[in-house]
Design a protein that fits this description.
Strand order of the largest sheet: 2-3-4
Oligomer: single chain
Strand content: under 5%
Bound molecules: protoporphyrin IX containing FE, 1-(1H-benzimidazol-1-yl)propan-2-one
Number of domains: 2
Largest sheet: 3 strands, antiparallel
Helix content: 40-55%
Number of helices: 14
CATH topology of the largest domain: Peroxidase, domain 1
Shape: globular
Order of helices and strands: EHHHHHHHHHHEEEHHHEH
CATH architecture of the largest domain: Orthogonal Bundle
Number of strands: 5
Radius of gyration: 18 Å
Length: about 290
């Protein structure tokens, strides 16, 4: 079914900047989360998972309907740990009850990314909440215990190129994996809440050892405490992906530009935005100080 955006009645870009500011201030206030990594990374992951159920073959799933709010999707094993991001956003929704859940989940990721020194991601409002019946079935999100062929095939459902896939997975510069959530653990100490191209730099420069986790998963560990999941490591094993890994390791600006474009495409996949829908480039808190 076609998803046509309808901007929340009477709301202007300034109204959405107020939501951005409330999320950004709460990220600063709730800084102790996950051993002081903060909520930035898990908010980015929620935005990706809310959009990552999209299937271009029947235009089902995706960020539009905000169906992550329903138990079937919240409790998808692939979404373990995202309850923390959902709880973080609940008071924001209470403060701005006019916003759709699809807009809230995607705006949460854009806010977190920009406040973590990431690129400015142009964002458009107008996702409209769909009923529980529109909730996609579990199992549409990717499984990390796989190689390059799986990754390439998985992202065909979104219409992404190899370059867009590599750029998007660069979000794994943020935060960490948690044994209780996914059966992977780490990185230790080195987890970050600042967006950069370090995922690609680490992937190319660290010495990796393949080990089994206590959950029986494979993960690659480096002496300096970094880790990669099999689907991360696949990006350097595949010659086409490797070309982009090198490009991004060498030039952070190119990575930021490509990530911005791929992330916007991910968050807007399957949605038709009518003429006149505003495109908003939010100011960071720092830019509003003066
Ligand atoms: C092959 C594709 C992908 C796979 C298999 C994958 C898998 C995972 C897994 C298993 C975790 C650990 C979750 C936990 O234990 O808490 C994780 C974390 C994360 N993922 Fe991905 N992911 C993929 C693509 C992406 C994309 C496209 C984005 C965003 C654009 C993203 C953003 C994140 C972030 C920010 C975290 C850290 C969350 C935190 O620190 O709580 N991932 N991913
Ligand atoms: C910083 C780094 O490359 C560690 N890392 C590698 N893969 C990751 C997936 C999610 C979060 C962090 C991850």
């Amino acid at each position: 079914a076609l998803r046509v955006a309808e901007v929340e009645k009477g709301k202007t870009p300034e109204d959405f900047q107020q939501v951005y500011n409330a999320i950004a201030k709460k990220i600063i206030d709730d800084d102790e989360y996950d051993n002081y990594i903060g909520y930035g990374p898990v908010l980015v992951r929620l935005s990706w998972h809310s959009a990552g159920t999209f299937d271009k073959n029947d235009n089902s799933g995706g960020s539009y309907g905000g169906t992550y709010r329903f138990p079937k999707e919240t409790n998808d094993p692939s979404n373990k740990g995202l309850q923390n991001a959902k709880a973080f956003l609940e008071p924001i929704y209470e403060q701005f009850p006019w916003i759709s859940h699809g807009d809230l989940y995607t705006l949460g990721g854009v806010t977190a990314l920009q406040e973590m020194q990431g690129p400015k991601v142009p964002w458009r409002p107008g996702r409209v909440d769909l009923p529980e019946s529109a909730t996609p079935e579990n199992g549409r999100l990717p499984d990390a215990e796989n190689g390059a062929d799986y990754v390439r095939n998985f992202f065909k459902r979104f219409g992404f190129t190899d370059q867009e896939v590599v750029a998007l997975i660069g979000a794994h510069a943020l935060g960490k994996t948690h044994m209780a959530n996914s059966g992977y653990e780490g990185p230790w100490g080195a987890a970050t809440n600042t967006f950069s191209n370090e995922f690609f730099v680490n992937l190319l420069n660290e010495q990796w050892k393949k080990e089994k986790t206590e959950a029986g998963n494979s993960q690659y560990n480096s002496p300096s405490g970094f880790m990669m999941m099999p689907t991360d490591f696949a990006l350097k094993e595949d010659n086409t992906y490797l070309k982009y890994v090198k490009k991004y390791a060498e030039n952070q600006d190119v990575f930021f530009e490509d990530f911005k474009n791929a992330y916007k495409k991910l968050l807007e996949n399957g949605i038709e935005f009518p003429e006149g829908t505003p495109t908003i480039v939010f100011k960071t808190l720092d830019e509003q100080e003066q």
